[in-house]
Amino acid sequence: MKPKRKKGRKMGWIIVLIIIAIVGIIGITKWSSLMKEHQEARNLPINLIDFSELKDGTYNGEYEGGMYKWRANKVEVTVASGKVTSIKFIGSSDPGKENTQHNELYKRIINAQSLQVDTISGATLTSKAYLKAIENALAKAQ
Questions:
Q1: What percentage of the chain has pLDDT greater than the value 70?
Q2: For residue range 48-84, what is the model confidence (pLDDT) as tens digits?
Q3: Which pick of 51, 60, 71, 115 has the fewest CB atoms within 10 Å?
């Protein structure tokens, strides 16, 4: 009876080790994908927009969200008397983003009349996605 018990324990340990290996491989794969998306967002270029050459009007802009469509968002930008006077958040692919996180970024852009503003601490990658949508709207206003 003892040899069967030892064989059963060995088999149990082998199964546990296989499960741990599978979970580890899945975790590494997910982590790798997440890091690629973060790298893409971190390197997202925000082009210079000459705010002194903006034409009055209301312009919509969106950012597709990059590799995995995370952080996709849409904005509406109003230009009056040659200045950005309003930026409205229209929507996002990320439920729950209808908070005020982006409002502080919008205030910074309106006050500076520039896209070259500090991002929101703790939301750098999301801030860059918002900036890209605004850039895309303002490109239509030039």
A1: 85
A2: 999 999 999 999 999 988 777 778 899 999 999 999 9
A3: 60
Is the entire prediction scored with pTM above 0.85?
no
Alpha-carbon span 27 to 52, nearest angstrom: 49
Structure tokens of 55?
């034409």
Residues forming beta bridges with residue 59, ordered by sequence position: 77
Q: Which residues face 89 on adjacent strands?
A: 75
Give the distance from CA 108 to its chain's centroid. 19
